[in-house]
Write a structure and sequence with these properties.
With about 210 residues, the chain is an alpha/beta fold. The chain folds into 2 domains: about 120 residues, Spore Coat Polysaccharide Biosynthesis Protein SpsA, Chain A (Alpha-Beta Complex), CATH 3.90.550.10; about 80 residues, no CATH class. It is built from 6 helices and 8 strands. Strands 1, 2, 3, 4, 5, 6, 7 and 8 form an 8-stranded mixed sheet that branches. The two termini are about 25 Å apart. Keywords: Nucleotidyltransferase, Transferase. This is Mannose-1-phosphate guanylyltransferase. InterPro entries: GMPP_N (IPR049577), Mannose-6P_isomerase_type2 (IPR051161), NTP_transferase_dom (IPR005835), Nucleotide-diphossugar_trans (IPR029044).
Length: about 210
Amino acid sequence: MENNYCVIMAGGVGSRFWPLSRQAKPKQFLDILGTGRTLIQQTFDRFSKFIPVENILVVTSARYNELVQEQLPELKEDQILLEPFRRNTAPCVAYASYKIKTRNPDANLIVAPADHLIIKEEEFIRQIKNGLDFIANNDTLLTLGIKPSRPETGYGYIQVKEKEDYNGLDNLYKVKTFTEKPNLEMAKVFVESGEFFWNSGIFLWSLPAILAA
């Protein structure tokens, strides 16, 4: 467990959830469902059930530093990584990976957005733990897909090919293609084909694997 780390990406401005989500306080810092916990707090709660708190890092914009400190007082200052400018996932991952390398070069990483709503939490945690076991024993990169329930133009899609057999797990696939936010007609084709999953934006890999990629 000491080799497992979680990087929570919390730098987005939440533009798709406007007007509730504003640049000054985007959706990851809001209690959208009225549960008493914001989305970033729920994300922290979820991963801290099986990741040591000291191994959880948040990457966010410098403008949201105080919000993260306020909502996640469990984190020390060096667990909040500040980006001077808002960037996409790749620079965020690279930044966090090199920071973690100084602490533990053998780390296994979960990279996840701060604003996901997870209903079946026990099943989610089970799948994440299976993924951690997989990346700890395989030099590969893993991403989580979601079976689409409808054609959706607001999500990215993952096309898969053959299944992989690993210790009895029956839901591992090799990735064929990634497609970002298709138009409606293409999304319908994707869903009807049965070959595509929504891209959850959650990734798992070992530190040596991602730094070599």
